Amino acid sequence: MPLRTQFSRLVDDIKRTRQTLEDQSPNWANVPTLKIASTLKQYAIDNFGAVSSIFDRKVDALENLQKQIDELRAQVEGVNHDIGLRKMHLPWLRCGHGSQPMQR
């Protein structure tokens, strides 16, 4: 699967995860003040581990994609360097006259 597709799916998944978390959270404006403390404590206990795990996986996936991008960039730079060396050693590639060497 292309990196662009992997990255797009990952970003979309992060957005869906965030929306799911927001949808499942209580409407804090309607919770009585005294109940907020106990609700918040239990909510944090119940959800922190799961949320932390979700975001850790997303960060790991993004870091993996970044490594792949860095590797591809290094490969492209290596190819560009090799092409530059070939042009230096094959003068007819520089002059744009097909396979004819440069005339002096």
Description of the molecule:
The protein has three helices and no strands. Helices cover 81% and strands 0% of the residues. The chain has helices at residues 3-24, 33-89, 91-95. The protein has 104 residues and is mainly α.
SSE arrangement:
Layout: H1 3-24, H2 33-89, H3 91-95
Helix pairs in contact: 1-2
Brief write-up:
The protein has helices at residues 3-24, 33-89, 91-95.
Features:
mainly alpha, rod-shaped, 104 residues, single chain
Structural class: mainly alpha
Mean pLDDT: 77
Radius of gyration: 27 Å
Give the CA-based shape. rod-shaped
Q: Can you write the helix and strand succession as a string?
A: HHH
Runs with pLDDT <50, length 5+? none
Number of strands: 0
Question: How many helices in DSSP terms?
Answer: 3
Strand content: under 5%
Helicity, in percent?
A: over 70%
